[in-house]
Amino acid sequence: MLLSMIVLIPLIFAVLTLLTRTRAQARALALVSSVAVLLLTIYTYFMFDSTSAATQFEEMYTWVPTLGISYNLGIDGISLPLILLNAIVIPLLILFTWNDEKHAPNRFYSLILITQGAVLGVFCALDFFLFYVFWELTLIPLFFMVSMWGGPKKHYASIKFFIYTHVASLVMLLGIFGLYFAAWSNTGTPSLNIPYLLSQFQFVGSGMTRDLIFLALLFGFIVKLPVFPFHSWLPDAYTEAPTAGSVLFVLLKIGGYGIFKIMLPLLPFTASPNLMITIMGALGAVSVLYGAFLALAQQDMKRMVAYSSLSHMGYVTLGAAGLVSLSVSGAMFQQFSHGLIMSIMFMACGVINNATGTRIMNELGGLAQRMPKLAVIMVLAFMASLGLPGLTGFIAEFSVLSGSFVNLQGYVVIALMAIVITGAYHLWALQRSMFGVYKEKLGNVVDINGYQTFAMGLIAILIVYFGLNPSPVLDMMLTNSEYLVGLMAGMGV
Amino acid sequence: MDLMLFAPEITMVVTGLAVLLIGLFLPVESKKVLGYLASLGILIALYFTVASLGTNALAFYDTLSVDALSQFFKIVFLVVALLFSIAAVKYTEGSKNTEEFYVLAIFATIGMMFVASANDLMVLFVAFELASISTYALSGFEKNNAQSLEASIKYFLIGSLSAALMLFGITFLYGVTGTTSIPGIAAGAAALAASPIGILAVVLLIAGFGFKIALVPFHMWAPDTYQGSPSLVSSLLAAGSKKMGIVAAFKVFIVALIALKVEWQIAFAILAVITMTVGNAAALSQTSVKRMLAYSSLAQAGYITMAFVVLTPMALGGGILYALSHGFMKAGAFIVTAAVVYMVLSENKDAQNPDHIDNFRGLGRRMPITALSMTVFVFALAGIPLTAGYMSKFVLFSSTIQAGFAWLAVIAILNSALSLYYYAKIVKYMYFLPTEGKKVSEPLPYTLALVVAVAGVLAIGFWPEPFIYWAMEAAKVLLAGGM
C-alpha cells in the first residue's frame, strides 16, 4: 500500500485542490499533500534494502486479465532516488510559490500535484500499460501549466511540447506492442509486466525485430530526456513555462529513468549491441557539447539554463552507454544531482525576472548588491552546475567521464571539450547578471522573501550534503548498476 | 420461439408508438414529458439488452439472431439513442413537432437494432432502410433552415444511391448462391469465389456500405450533412447510423463473404488508410466545429475499418469496442456543440454559423461543465490514456501489430498523433482564448447527457475488462460464422 499511497495522494489532493476557492486554501492543501508524500518517501527510504537490486515493496492487483494488464507497483535502486528527488523538491517548490500572485491558484497547485502523482507513478509502475498511462498523464498538466501561466510564446511552446513528446510516446508505444506480442506469441499468455517482458526480449524471433523494438523504445525515452537532435521542444517549453513549470520539467526524469530501467536490460540482447552503444554514446557526447555551445550564445538567462540542461542530460546517455558500473551509476546520480541544481537555477531565473522585469543578461548587472541572499545560493548552484568538486555535479560528471573512458574514449574526449565551455558560460552569466556595477534603471530591487530563501537554501544545502557524502543515494544506484553491468558481461558485451 | 429475445426491440416500438400517440394530445408546453418517456423506454430496452448478453438464439425462421455481436451493437445504438433523447428535451423545447423528433429517432434506432440482429440480407436491407429513411427526415428537421434542408437532401440522394448499390450487390449474391440467408451465402461461397460476379458483388457492396460508413471516397455527403443537420441529429448519424453500416459490413463481408477475403481485404486496407489520412488532414483546417467533428468521424471510421484488414478476434474485438467508445465520445462531442449552438442562439437569434470555433472561446469560464466534458471527449478521441478512446486504440492498434500489419499500425498511430493538433485547438479555444461573453447557466438536459457520456468514456477507460470481454465475444461470433 505504501507505493500506492505515494502515487495516489497527490492525485487525490489534486482534485481536492481544484475545488478550493482561495489561494490560501489551495496552497495549504498542496503543501499538506506534498509533505505527506515526502514523509512516506522518507519512511520508504529507510525501509529500503540498498544492497539488493531486486524489486521491493511490490504491489499487484489484476486489472484487465484478458490483455494481461495489472496494477503492479514496485521500486528498486533506480527509481527510489528519483522518487526521493521529486518528493523533496515539490514541497519546496510549493513554498517557493507561497506568495506568488497567480490567477486561478486552485488550478495551479492542482496541476503541480497531478504532475507529481504522474511522475511518481512512472517511477513505481511495473506494468507497461500503467507505465504508459502515467507517462502520458505527465503531458496534460504540463501542457496546461505552460499554456496558462507561460511567457509570451506560451501557446506555441505548449502545443509544440505536447505534440512532439506525444509522437515520441506513440513510437515508444509501438515498441511496447512489439515486445508484448512477441512474448505473447512465444509463451501463449498475454502479459504487460515490465520485468517479465524484459526477460522475454531475448526470445524474440529475429534480430531485426529486436533492434526495431529497442530503437522504438529508445526514441520515446531520448525525446523526453532529451538529447540532440530531438531537443527542440526543450528550450521553448522550459523557457516559456512559469518558474514552477520549469522546475516540474526538471523533475520530469522519466526519460532517463526509462533508459536505465528498460533500455539497459534490453541492450545486451539486441542483434547489434555495439551499434546501439554507439548511437547512445554519440548522441550523449554531442548533446553535451552542442548544449554547452548553445548555452554560451544565449542572452536570455532562462534559455541559457534550458540549454545547459540539454548539455547535462547528455551525460545521462553517455554514462548509460559507458557500460561500467561507475559510469552507469554516475549517470543515474547525474539525474538526481541535475534535478536539485536546475531547480535552484530556474527558481533564480524566475526571481530575477519578477524583480527586474527582464532576464536578458546584458540588461542586468550588480544584482548581488541588492539581492545578497539570492546571490549566495545562485553562485553555489552555478558552481555545482559547472562541476566544482565538493558539490553533486562534480561527482556525477566525474564518474560518467572517467567511467565511460574505459569503453568510449572518443566520445569522452568530445564531452571533455565541453567542460571548458560549461565553465565559461556559467561564470560569464554570473558576471554579467550578478556582479559588476548595479544598473540603476532596474529600479528598486528587493531580495528573495523568507519562503523563497528557505526553499532555495534547503536545496542548496542538499547539493552540498550529497556532494560531500553521496552514498545515501549512490549506494543503491551502484548496486543496480553492478547488476546491469553484470547482465551485459554475461552476454559478452 | 421466445418473444422475450426481442424484448429490447418490442420495448422500443411500444415507446415510439406511445410517444407518437401521447404527443398528439399534449399542449406544446408539456411536451417535455415525451422526452422523459422516450428516455425511460430506451433505458428499459437497454436493461433488457444488457440482461440478455450471453444468449444465443435464432428466431423468425432463422432470419434474426440474438448473440453477443447483435447485443453489443444494440447497446451501442441504445446508448447513443439515450444520450440523444436526454439532450433533446432541451432542443425540442417549445417545438410543436416534439413527438416527431423523438419517434423518428426511436424508429431509426429500431432499424439499427434489427440490422445488428439480421441473419438474412433481406431483413438487413429493410432494417437498414428503416433507419436511413428516419434519419433523412431528421436531418431536415429544421424546416426553416436552408442548411438543414440542404443537408437532408444531400443525405437522402446519396443514401438512396448507396441503397441501390447495396441492393444490386445483394441480388448478385442471391443470383449465384440462390439464398439471401447470411450463413447460406457463406456455405455457397465457393460458387461466388469461382465466378466474376462475386467480385462485382463485393465492389458494389463496398461502395454501398462505404457511403453509409463514410469511407473516402464515398464520404462527400458526410461533412455537409453533419454540419447542416441539427447537432443532435449529427450525433445520431455519426455515433449511431455509422455503426449500423459497420455492423452490416461485418456481417456481409466477414460472415457471408469470408471466402472472398483476399479480394476485399486489400480494398479495405486502402480505404482505411485513405479515410483516416484524409479525415485527419481535412479536419486540421476547419473552423466549423461540427465540420471538424465530421472529418474526425471519418478518421475514426478509418481506424475501425482496420479490423476488416486484420481479421483476428482481437482486432475485431478492438473494432467493436471502438464502435462503443466512439458512440460515447462522438455523441458527447456533438451534444456539446448543440449546447454551444443553443447558447449562441439564445444570445442572438440571427447568429450565423453558431458552431464556429470562435464561439468556443472562453467556454471554460462560460459553461464550465460543458467545456470540461468537451475536453474529456476530445482527449478521448485523440487517444489519451484512461479514456475509452485510448483503450479501443490500444486493443485495435496492438492487434494490428500482432497480426503482422505493422505498417498499418504505424500509419494509424501517426494519424492519431496528427489528430491531436485539431483536438488540442478546441481545448485551446475553450480555456486559453479570451472572451467577452458572460457565464451562462447550462441547460440541465444537455448537462445530464454530457455527464452520462463522460461517465461512459471514463468507465471504459478505467475498467475496460467487461467491455473488452464482450467485444471479444462478439468478435468470436463473427469469426465462428465465417469459418
Automatic annotation (TrEMBL), chain A:
Keyword tRNA processing: no
Any one GO molecular function term: NADH dehydrogenase (ubiquinone) activity
Gene Ontology cellular-component terms listed: membrane
Entry's localization field: Membrane
GO BP annotations listed: ATP synthesis coupled electron transport; electron transport coupled proton transport
Keywords: Membrane, Transmembrane, Transmembrane helix
Lineage: superkingdom: Archaea
Domain NADH:quinone oxidoreductase/Mrp antiporter transmembrane: 125-422
One Pfam short name: Proton_antipo_M
Transmembrane segments: 6-22, 29-48, 68-96, 108-126, 132-149, 161-183, 212-234, 246-269, 275-297, 304-324, 336-353, 374-396, 408-428, 448-468
Record family assignment: Belongs to the complex I subunit 4 family.
Protein name (Swiss-Prot/TrEMBL): Dehydrogenase
The organism of origin for this protein: Methanolobus chelungpuianus
From TrEMBL, chain B:
Transmembrane domains' residue ranges: 6-26, 33-51, 71-89, 101-118, 153-176, 182-211, 301-322, 328-346, 367-391, 403-423, 444-463
Keyword presence, Cytoplasm: no
Gene Ontology MF terms in the entry: NADH dehydrogenase (ubiquinone) activity
Biological processes, Gene Ontology terms: ATP synthesis coupled electron transport
Keywords of this entry: Membrane, Transmembrane, Transmembrane helix
Any one Gene Ontology cellular component term annotated for this protein: membrane
Domain NADH:quinone oxidoreductase/Mrp antiporter transmembrane: from-to ranges: 118-418
Domain of life: Archaea
Mode of membrane association: Multi-pass membrane protein
Predominant cellular place of this UniProt entry's protein: membrane
Any Pfam family: Proton_antipo_M
Subcellular location(s) per record: Membrane
Family matches, as NCBIfam families: NDH_I_N
PANTHER family: NADH DEHYDROGENASE
Protein name in the entry: Dehydrogenase
Organism: Methanolobus chelungpuianus
